[in-house]
Amino acid sequence: VTLTRKEAEELRPWVDRTVQKFLGFEEPTLVTAAVSCLSSGFDRAETARKLSSLLDDSKAASLAEQLLTGAVEQLRTKQRQAQDDDGPRKSRFSEMPPVIGQPSPGQLTTLQIREMMANAQRMIEERKKALGGSVPTPVVPVAAAVADSRNRIAELTAQIQAKLGSRPGFLQQPAATPASVATRPTPLILNAEGRTVDSTGREVQLAHHTPTLKANIRAQKREQFKIHQEKLGEDVAEQNFFDQRVGAKPVQRGRRGFRFHEKGKYEQLAQRLRTRAKLERLQQEIAQAAKRTGISSATKIALMVPAARAKEGKEEIPDVEWWDTFIIKGESYDNVIEAVVAGGAPLENLLEGVTNLVEHPIQMKAPTLPPRGPPPLPVFLTQKERKKLRRQNRREAWKEKQEKIRLGLEPPPEPKVRMSNLMRVLGSQQVQDPTKVEAHVREQMAKRQKAHEEANASRKLTTEQRRDKKLRKLKEDTTRGVHVAVYRVLSLTNPAKKFKVEMNAKQLFLTGCVVLYRNVNLVVVEGGPRQQSKYRRLMLSRIKWSEDTIQGEGDKTEKNQCTLVWEGTVKSRSFGELKFKVCPTESLAREHFRKHGVEHYWDLAYSSTLLELADA
């Protein structure tokens, strides 16, 4: 396909639509390249190669085929339209070309005259029938009118035929006119004086349309509108429901002037909005913090201050207590008493801040409950990983130090001289004065050794720090719960074992008590889980209770033993430092535990002892 530059530019809108339909979006560069290919007369392969720089090969080939095929169809369509436009155009009067021998359009033929007469008679008859029922139609005037019309028509026909008698072709009988004659414009009828008349011969005044200016048309419409408004105003004023006090809306809207904003107005508004939002956010945070920590109730109590304090040195009884001045509106209790006793004004109207709402305390989680979810497992590195991590840390520290030396932030270190690299580092100085150089090297070695020892000593814990570290290991956090263990020993008469029981409890910072009563000697200890584990090992494994013998009933002897009666968790501690309590009777022992609110410890141990004796 070979196109001229003009034809290619005419096809540019079609090419643009084709590219947009193919890609889904507009691409002016691709449209320009396609138009250039069409104007250059490229074939399909050359067009695809040209478009492949902008598209994929497959898409370029498909688009090239669409462009060439569509361009051919567009050219054929344009040529077909051009041929249709170049054909002969039909005139409005082409259906009846003027032919010699036929009457002119303005001449009345005999057939037309007959039709006019028939129509006139038909109209007269219809008029007679319409008026026949009410008013009798006089016969003479109608006949006279018909006769007058006939005479007039005859005269006109004679005049026209006399004028055109010299032309025999015009007086011939015309052929039957086609149906399209009825669609032609109404013929113009002129009388002898040249005036326009209708089919009955009466004069017709034609409307003459003359052009005018737009300004004159607008002025004329404005005058008509004013006259119409004046008439409406007069009609409204005459009505009874018209109120003259109400201002009438003007017909035309008034012209408004410009109002310019000052520079920085909207910046100030934005700054105000930001400040207000910041204050609101800050107030919300303060309110949430106060509600979470319980400060809101304390703040209300702190606001309850007396309205007026008595002078110093005078102890007068106030009319209203200072804690009531915050809620009582008056300065005395009289109004409140009258409202309560006499049933006057409601009590809610006399008190401020008293509502039917209840301020509930913050719900706290039970400290004895375990934390939600399992604790995270600690990550332990292998020996190789620890060495690698240590090397990396040393490398980073060395790089940082070298960077500081390079920037001049730190002085460069002295060369690390040893006896083995003495000649390699100092060189000529060693040859000049070897004794001095050796002394300098040994001094540096001693200095480095001292710095190393001082660094190690600084990392060591002091005596107090080591003591605190041991205490931290021994002491445990008991805020989430206290672990309790109850041991029953048959005999605690051995002073050595008694000392071990007391001293280990103090060293492990355990609290509790030891109750001595016959063969029911109870040891109650309270502490953390690790403390209980160490003390359990002491009571059940380390102390050899079986070494002691106890005199039983008669000549029987039995070995001493220690039994774990119960262990569990409680909310708080019940005892202080571990102490011994001698109880000669069972009631005194139970009373001792009841004072501390744990008499069930004694009941459990004493009942188990009775069961063992019953089994024996």
UniProtKB/TrEMBL annotation:
Domain PWI: 3-77
InterPro entries: Pre-mRNA_splic_Prp3_dom (IPR013881), Prp3 (IPR027104), Prp3_C (IPR010541), PWI_dom (IPR002483)
Biased composition (Basic and acidic residues): 81-93, 443-467
CDD domains from the UniProt entry: Prp3_C (cd24162)
Assigned keywords, A-Z: mRNA processing, mRNA splicing, Nucleus, Phosphoprotein, Ribonucleoprotein
GO biological process: mRNA splicing, via spliceosome
Record-level GO cellular component terms: U4/U6 x U5 tri-snRNP complex
UniProt region (Disordered), positions on chain: 74-106, 443-473
Pfam families for the chain: PRP3, Prp3_C, PWI
Keyword Phosphoprotein appears in the UniProt entry: yes
Location in the cell: Nucleus
Known role: Plays a role in pre-mRNA splicing as component of the U4/U6-U5 tri-snRNP complex that is involved in spliceosome assembly, and as component of the precatalytic spliceosome (spliceosome B complex).
Annotated protein name in UniProt: U4/U6 small nuclear ribonucleoprotein Prp3
Organism: Amblyomma sculptum (Tick)
